[in-house]
Design a protein that fits this description.
- The complex is a heterodimer of chains A (164) and B (216).
- By secondary structure, chain A is an all-alpha fold.
- Chain A folds into two domains: 86 residues, Rna Polymerase Sigma Factor, Chain: A (Orthogonal Bundle); 72 residues, Winged helix-like DNA-binding domain superfamily/Winged helix DNA-binding domain (Arc Repressor Mutant, subunit A), CATH 1.10.10.10.
- Helices cover 71% and strands 0% of the residues of chain A.
- Chain A has eight helices and no strands.
- In chain A, α2 crosses α3 and α7 crosses α8.
- The radius of gyration of chain A is 17 Å and the shape is globular.
- Chain B has one domain.
- In chain B, α3 packs parallel to α7 and α7 packs antiparallel against α9.
- Chain B is elongated and about 85 Å long.
- The chains are: A mainly alpha (164), B mainly alpha (216).
Amino acid sequence: MTQELEHQFVTELEQNQNIVHKVCSLYTNNRDAHNDLFQEITIQLWKAYPKFRGDSKFSTWMYRVALNTAITLYRKSKKQPKTQDFDSVVYRIQSEEYDPTEQQQINLMYAAVKQLGDIDKALVFLYLEDKNYKEIAETLGISEVNARVKMNRIKTKLKAILNP
Amino acid sequence: MIDELDLLKKDWQKRDSEMPKLSYDQIHRMIWKKSSSVVRWIFYISIIEFIVPHLLYLLPSFRDGMNTDISGALGIQPILIGLSVIQYGVAIYFIVQFYRRYKEISVLDNASNLMDKIMRTRKTVKHYVLFCLGMILIFFMIFILGLYFSDNLVESLQLGKEPDMDPARFKWMVIGIMSVAAIVFTVVMGGIYFLLYGLLTRRLLFNYKDLKRMEG
């Protein structure tokens, strides 16, 4: 029984691991920290898996656990270097229709997002993942109106970071 | 600005191929690893806090201090026994409370509720620690009062031979040492606790305030 559950879980996580990697890439600055957070999220997902009823999609359920782990449960074990050595690997430019100004803008935006607080990052993450405000509000446990207000504030904050 | 964030969104969606890929086996190995989450640490530290005051009895000097002969001679034994009963009663209450709070914590909750529950669990432990620190001070105070009202301190403390000084001076010296010990002990215990928790939940507290500010 446990083995079956294990197999099912690992298979589903393997297929959906991008969600977790994306969370890790937002919240950490180097490969060690990335792997560390990935592992903690995996442990939390596995612990909660027996309660996953399948009434929502596995991926939907993952967003909540992954973000909760990143902003609430996770303890940064080692001091993270301020330099973003991992970014150069993860945020590699791979656009076919390469537009230097557009790409530059995108890179600047990524750098700005990484400077945001943990909660703000969670909102941006869900927004980038194309979640609507209702889902964002439910995941964070705030009202929909506040989610919108907060998102607007983040946009202003990003603008300030980009144009100091 | 909206355009820029939407630009980012478009790029973000394309980034799947750039993400690291872990194999089935790599993920499988991870699921049995030990969690190092804040909640787990709060749990460990709480267990230590419930045990440590009792470990003190293993120290010879502390055991002697609580020695029934001495407390009997000082006439404070019934009070100490009464206080111990209260202390154990309250400790059991806190253990039950803590366990209930701890069980309530679920990673499936929304972020706000999850943080609320962790903070409540942390608060339960905090109250318990404050209670323990208070009890330590009370124990010391009763002991000091016992010393103060003792007619023959040398005999009560079972020192054997008379010290080479005025008995009244000797009494005040012992009381002074005990008072300093009481304060130092309480401050050190409290300091360790608040430092541990402060460091452990600093980031959590920061995010908690950030999220609550949003609602306020």
